[in-house]
Amino acid sequence: MLLVLKRRIKMEKFTITKDNGRRIPVLREIPQEADAVVIMVHGFTSCKECATGELLLRRMPAEGIGVMLYDQPGHGTEEAAEEPFRIRNCMDSLAAVEDYVVRNYPGKEIFYFASSYGAYLTGLYICRRPHAGSRLMMRSGAVIMPWLFLGAPGSEPDPASLAELNEKGFLMLGLPDAPQIRVPKGMFEDMSRPENDLLHRFGGYDHGGTEVAMVHGGKDPVIPVRFAREFAEENGIPITVFEGQGHSLNDNPDCPDKVADLAIDFFRG
């Protein structure tokens, strides 16, 4: 509520019910004159009320692009946090949000702005599911997401973490200076499946005509830029690298707006 009053805009908070009965908390700002809607897919340990969501709300509506923000399963402080953090559940949430936009805003073009794990998930989504989005901006895309959970290919799991996972059925994980998220054993199983290796499988799928662009930090300590460059080169994806920037692309205070500028240019073709 404080966010709405501070920004003095018409932003609505509501929930979308999934086919499994779970509810997705959503924030929406879609001006009547908007001819497109961008769906933000947040990263691991983040939520709809993140700095990137604020950036999109500040910049996109003025460009005629509405904004849909939502919490992924296992994240946020509302109903979504209670749903297990699994790839299928995450895809189902994105599909439900997209379906809501299609049904309630017919004729408006749909874009995705996806960060880190959200970019990984959306990459899988456009490979696997029927979808309506025409363009995907991958911000700090976690193209090596399984490595972050399982370790680099050929590496041995940490014995203590493996013992804890087998005992509890989950691990509490998070990025530095971020909340920890309950990651169930099933998510580690999801990550171990070859079809979820986005780095080496993305080019083998039909993406349904969805165009992709990437933006990455040259000093990203989470997803080293060499992997982002490799992914972009192998798949013919344009990539913009901000040298000196980390994973959040906000080390320089003007960088977030530069990212927004890139996204707007890309969405508008």
From TrEMBL:
Transmembrane segments: none annotated. The lineage of its organism: Bacteria, Bacillati, Bacillota, Clostridia, Peptostreptococcales. This is Serine aminopeptidase S33 domain-containing protein. InterPro entries: AB_hydrolase_fold, Hydrolase_4. Gene3D superfamilies: alpha/beta hydrolase. It comes from Hornefia porci. Pfam families: Hydrolase_4. Residues 32-144 form the Serine aminopeptidase S33 domain. It comes from the Bacteria.
